[in-house]
Design a protein that fits this description.
- The protein is about 45% helix and about 15% strand.
- It has nine helices and seven strands, in the order βαβαβαβαβαβαααβα.
- Strand 1, helix 1 (about 20-30) and strand 2 form a beta-alpha-beta unit.
- The longest helix has 29 residues, at about 110-140.
- Hexanoyl-coenzyme A binds next to helix 4 and helix 6.
């Protein structure tokens, strides 16, 4: 059970914490007692988000925002030093900032590919590298959580090539460093969300209502994920409830990834009751 002090004593930086899933995680962590730092590119958005996070937090939590582009290694190093100075220490990092858009891969410009891979992969490396070095120098344990996707691993995905490449790299980084940095008491895990509607993702990735319907029809749970569900999972992985979990990627997708099951299509042929009658008739016929 979570309580209002599940994450107390923690100071967690959430990149891209000014909106969407990053903001939902920030609010949840603050409600569980963690101090929160968020970073992003747009000051006004960050300022508004910081206020909302403070309101969601327990009385004692401190919330600060930092204007920073995760692609800028020097700025990220400077920001981590600033966070440690502002809060006294930093205990956790969520690499949530991402970039994505739909494109036929043959039409991608090198600049388009680079923009997304820079945000997703280089951005996650920059933050992880700066935070990891701080933890190692201070001989302090810590937690890193990387947001990947359900297409990071076995399938990749058509029409989002830069994101698929970047997120696969982030997953490789999660596992590589989980092993390498376990000796320092640093845990790294990943969450692979299925479809969680947010303005940032949906405006770029779901072109119209037809696409929305197609999206929904692939989810056996027959609904999208709720941000709160994702935030709960993130809080668990960042907390002292999960000290022995590292190098893991937890999928949270209502079963969407299981769509390739060979006979799954049968469910779409007829309503369940009709299917049951059909199966019974087949059985009685001895087939
Ligand atoms: C083709 C595009 C493009 C598009 C940009 N580019 N948008 N190419 N189709 N829709 C190209 C530009 O032409 C340019 O190429 C290069 O990309 C850089 O574009 P800029 O706009 O200058 O870059 P920048 O301002 O840095 O913006 C980065 C961005 C943008 C990734 C393009 O969309 C962004 O800031 N996104 C952040 C938020 C976001 O994407 N959230 C969704 C994450 S969802 P040239 O060749 O001219 O240099 C997610 C979840 C996945 O990841 C799972 C979902 C189920």
């Amino acid at each position: 059970m979570f309580t209002s002090d599940t994450l107390s004593e923690q100071t967690i930086l959430i990149t891209g914490g000014g909106s969407g899933l990053g903001l939902a995680m920030a609010k949840k962590f603050a409600a569980l007692g963690s101090n929160i730092a968020i970073c992003g590119r747009t000051k006004e958005k960050l300022k508004k988000a910081a206020k909302a996070i403070s309101e969601a937090g327990t009385g004692a939590v401190e919330v600060r925002y930092y204007e920073a582009d995760v692609r800028d290694h020097d700025r990220i190093q400077e920001m981590i030093v600033q966070i440690v100075s502002d809060f006294g220490r930093m205990t956790g990092l969520v690499n949530n900032a991402a970039g994505n858009f739909l494109s036929a891969s043959e039409d991608l410009s090198p600049g388009g590919f680079k923009a997304v891979v820079d945000i997703v992969l280089h951005g996650s490396f920059n933050c992880t590298h700066a935070f990891g070095n701080y933890l190692i120098d201070e001989e302090q344990e810590g937690n890193i959580l990387n947001m990947v996707t359900t297409y990071s691993e076995s399938t990749g995905s058509a029409f989002v090539l830069p994101s698929a490449c970047g997120k696969a790299g982030v997953l490789a980084m999660t596992r590589s460093l989980a092993y390498e940095w376990a000796t320092y008491g640093i845990r790294l895990n990943a969450i692979a969300p299925g479809p969680f509607p947010t303005k940032g993702a949906w405006s770029r990735l779901v072109p119209d209502e037809d696409a929305e319907e197609q999206f929904l029809s692939k989810i056996p749970a027959k609904r999208y994920g709720d941000k709160e569900e994702l935030a709960n999972l993130a809080a668990f992985l960042m907390s002292d409830m999960a000290p022995y979990i590292t190098g893991e990627c937890v999928v949270i997708d209502g079963g969407e990834r299981l769509g390739a099951g060979q006979f799954n299509f049968i469910d779409k042929l007829a309503p369940r009751e009709k299917l049951k009658q059909f199966f019974k008739a087949m059985h009685e016929k001895g087939s």
